[in-house]
C-alpha cells in the first residue's frame, strides 16, 4: 500500500497504486496506473473522487491515517463517474455516511445508471459550471467538462490553493513511487501523457480547446494540477499545458507511421521499402507490425505523425484481422488531417487494399495513391515501386506541413 502524501497544507493524496494492471479497457498499460483520490481537510472535510472497487481498503486505510475515523469525511465530490473512480463509492458511502455527494447534472444521471436503486438513496447534490461550494477556509469552484472524456466529467478548482483537480484530463497510466512530476523520469512522463491523450482524450480535442480557452478567460491561476491517474503536475505545468494545446489542435510533424500485417512477409517487404522511400526524403518513420505492436502504442505514435501508411495482405477476401483491429480502433479515435496510403500483397483477388482505403476515407485522410498491390512475393522492381510510393508520401507530407505554416 502506498503512503499518504500531503500535496499542500491539509490537502492529501489518498489514492491507490495499481502496479499490475496491463490492460485498461483495451489500452495497454505497460507501466501500470494509479487511481488518485484527494482529501481536503477543512471545516467540511471533502474527498475528491474515490478509487476502483478492489482498492477501497487502500483509501479507507489512508483516511484512517489522516483523520483517525473515516466517518469524519463530510462531503464527496464525484468529478467523473467511470468505474475506476466511482467503483468504490457504494462501499465508501456505506462506511463514511457523508452529508453530501456532489456531482454534475450528467453525473447525477450517470451515478443512477451505474448504481441504480443504491444511488437513489445517496445524498446527491447537483452542481453546475460556476457553482461554488464553501468548505470553510477554502472554496471549490466547479466547471463541467462534458465529453472530456465522458458526459458527466467536471473539474474542481480550489482558488485559495490555486489547485485544479482535473479528473482524467492531464492524467497518465503511470504507476510510480513518486507522486509529483519532478519525482519521475520526465521523458517517460511525457510519453505516458501522450499515450493517454492519444488513446482517451483525442476524440474530444475540440472540447479540450474550449476548456483551455475557458480557463484562460476565467483567469484561473493554476499552480498544481491533480489528475485522477498518474502524477501531480507542479513543476512541469507549462510543458503539459503546451502539449495539450498542441495535441488538441492536431499539430503534426514530418513523421509517418507505417503499420502492416503479414502472413508470409511479402507485405512486410513492401512496408520496409516504403519506409526507405520516406526516410530518403527526410521524413521520420516508425514501422509497426500490427501483429506485434499493441493498438494503443500504434495510436500513440500516430498522435503527432502526419503520415499514416497501412499495409495488409488479403486473407479470405479481406484484410488481416489484426489490421482490421488497428483500423477500427484508430478510426474511433478520430485522428484528423493525415496523409495516407494503403498497400499489400495478395494472391488472386486482393481486396485488402480496397477495405483499408475505405477506413482511411472514413477518417477523411488525404489519400495520395489509389493503393499499391503486389501479387504474391514482390520482385526487385516492385520493391522499387514501393520505395517510390514512400517518396511520394514524404513529398505530400512535407508539402502539407509547409502549407499549414
Ligand atoms: C488462408 C489464406 C487465405 C487467402 N485468401 C486470399 C484471398 O481471399 N484473396 C487473395 O487475393 N489472396 C489470398 N491469399 C493469398 C495471400 O494474400 C498471399 O499469399 C500474399 O502474398 C500473402 O502476403 P503476406 O506474406 O504479406 O501475408 C490467402 C492466403 C492464405 C494463406
From TrEMBL:
The keyword Cytoplasm does not apply. CDD domains: flavodiiron_proteins_MBL-fold. SUPFAM superfamilies: Flavoproteins, Metallo-hydrolase/oxidoreductase. Keywords: Hydrolase. It comes from the Bacteria. The keyword Hydrolase applies. InterPro entries: Flavodoxin/NO_synth (IPR008254), Flavoprotein-like_sf (IPR029039), Metallo-B-lactamas (IPR001279), ODP_dom (IPR045761), RibonucZ/Hydroxyglut_hydro (IPR036866), Rubredoxin-O_OxRdtase (IPR016440). GO terms for molecular function: electron transfer activity; FMN binding; hydrolase activity; metal ion binding; oxidoreductase activity. Pfam families: Flavodoxin_1, ODP. In the N-terminal section; belongs to the zinc metallo-hydrolase group 3 family. This is MBL fold metallo-hydrolase. It comes from Thermosulfuriphilus ammonigenes. The lineage of its organism: Bacteria, Pseudomonadati, Thermodesulfobacteriota, Thermodesulfobacteria, Thermodesulfobacteriales.
Amino acid at each position: 500500500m502506498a503512503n499518504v502524501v500531503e500535496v499542500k497544507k491539509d490537502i492529501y493524496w489518498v489514492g491507490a497504486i495499481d502496479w499490475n494492471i496491463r490492460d485498461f479497457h483495451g489500452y495497454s498499460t505497460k507501466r501500470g496506473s494509479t487511481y488518485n483520490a484527494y482529501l481536503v481537510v477543512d471545516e467540511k472535510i471533502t474527498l475528491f473522487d474515490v478509487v476502483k472497487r478492489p482498492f477501497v481498503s487502500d483509501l479507507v486505510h489512508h483516511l484512517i491515517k489522516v483523520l483517525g475515523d473515516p466517518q469524519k469525511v463530510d462531503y464527496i465530490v464525484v468529478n467523473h463517474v467511470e468505474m475506476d473512480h466511482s467503483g468504490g463509492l457504494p462501499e465508501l458511502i456505506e462506511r463514511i455516511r457523508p452529508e453530501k455527494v456532489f456531482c454534475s447534472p450528467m453525473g447525477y444521471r450517470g451515478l443512477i445508471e451505474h448504481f441504480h436503486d443504491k444511488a437513489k438513496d445517496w445524498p446527491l447534490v447537483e452542481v453546475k459550471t460556476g457553482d461554488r461550494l464553501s468548505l470553510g477556509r477554502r472554496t471549490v469552484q466547479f466547471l463541467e467538462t462534458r465529453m472530456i472524456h465522458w458526459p458527466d466529467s467536471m473539474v474542481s478548482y480550489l482558488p485559495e490553493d490555486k489547485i485544479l483537480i482535473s479528473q482524467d484530463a492531464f492524467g497518465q497510466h503511470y504507476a510510480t513511487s513518486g507522486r509529483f512530476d519532478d519525482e519521475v523520469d520526465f521523458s517517460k512522463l511525457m510519453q505516458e501523457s501522450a499515450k493517454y491523450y492519444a488513446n482517451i482524450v483525442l476524440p474530444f480535442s475540440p472540447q479540450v480547446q474550449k476548456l483551455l480557452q475557458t480557463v484562460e478567460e476565467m483567469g484561473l491561476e493554476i499552480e498544481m494540477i491533480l489528475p485522477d491517474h498518474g502524477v501531480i503536475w507542479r513543476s512541469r505545468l507549462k510543458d503539459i499545458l503546451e502539449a495539450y494545446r498542441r495535441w488538441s489542435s492536431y499539430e503534426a510533424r514530418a513523421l509517418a507511421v507505417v503499420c502492416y500485417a503479414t502472413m508470409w512477409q511479402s507485405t512486410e517487404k513492401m512496408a520496409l521499402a516504403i519506409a526507405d522511400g520516406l526516410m530518403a526524403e527526410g521524413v521520420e518513420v516508425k514501422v509497426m507490425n500490427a501483429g506485434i505492436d499493441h493498438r494503443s502504442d500504434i495510436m500513440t505514435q500516430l498522435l503527432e505523425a502526419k503520415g499514416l501508411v497501412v499495409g495488409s495482405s488479403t486473407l479470405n477476401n479481406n484484410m488481416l484481422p489484426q489490421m482490421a483491429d488497428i483500423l477500427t480502433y484508430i478510426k474511433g479515435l478520430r485522428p484528423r488531417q493525415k496523409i495516407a496510403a494503403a498497400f499489400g500483397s495478395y494472391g488472386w483477388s486482393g481486396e485488402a487494399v480496397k477495405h483499408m482505403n475505405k477506413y482511411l476515407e472514413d477518417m477523411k485522410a488525404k489519400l495520395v495513391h489509389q493503393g499499391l498491390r503486389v501479387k504474391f512475393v514482390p520482385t526487385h522492381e516492385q520493391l522499387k515501386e514501393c520505395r517510390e510510393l514512400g517518396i511520394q508520401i514524404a513529398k505530400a507530407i512535407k508539402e502539407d506541413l509547409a502549407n499549414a505554416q
